Amino acid sequence: MNKKVGLVLEGGGFRGLYTAGILHSFATNNIMFPYTIAVSMGASNATNYLAGQTQRNLDVPYTFVNDKRYISYTRMFAKGELFGMDFIFGEVPYKLIPFDFKAFAASKNKLLYVTTDCTTGKPYYIPNDTNEESFLALEASTSLPFASKMVKMHNRLLLDGGIANPIPIEKALADGCEKVVVVLTQPKAYRKTPFKAKWLAKLMYRKFPLMAGAILNRHQVYNHQLDLIEKLEAEGKAFVVRPTEALPIGRTEKNKEKLKDAFDIGFKEGQRMNEELLEFIK
Q1: Which of 80, 110, 225, 271 is the most buried (most CB within 10 A)?
Q2: Taking 70 as the threshold, does the pLDDT of residue 241 lie above it?
């Protein structure tokens, strides 16, 4: 593969099961990228991808999505956490659906986790230098605003990277990627609308006004990035994988079969465009 080709993965909550299916297709066709930059659910998918465990991206949510240890609205209202991070990053990878830490550490490919610095409202990037750093960075990148506690790391308070840099295409280019493969979870016509509950962002993050500002400005950043991606696509510098229509799945989907359906849609799309992708990256 051309070493100047990078992989860019956005988040999207459980819509990311589509991305998981795409990566499963990549893995079955022995396609790996020397550089990956990923956000939120995309970062979770990328972590398993580097460990050679792309099926795990489906197995974990499919197994635990209706388990209160994994996701609980009661816990969110009581403790400010929708997802049980201790369970997800503790019991699950070490005991219940084991993560291959050895294989992940042995990977020669670079993975950059995108987080948002709550003090500055700017993106903060963390590479996969060690397993410990990577898993803490992953926790930060997947910690949703309004539904998660801030993660302390590198003397910073961090949350979901999708707030400040939802589709980190510019960072991939700045890091030397001459061509990019971008996996999106919304169809081509989609554009993000402004966050409606401005009062909530300002109230919840009153001590972090730049963070609140990033939340309110996110739609502009996201739509600008979509425009850039389409420009690069037209120039032959971006290979974009996206669903042809809105996925039949919500960000916090509870229907297990819909999770599997989204994964299968992604896998089939990955298989369909495999030869075209190989031509792009060779």
Answers
A1: 225
A2: yes
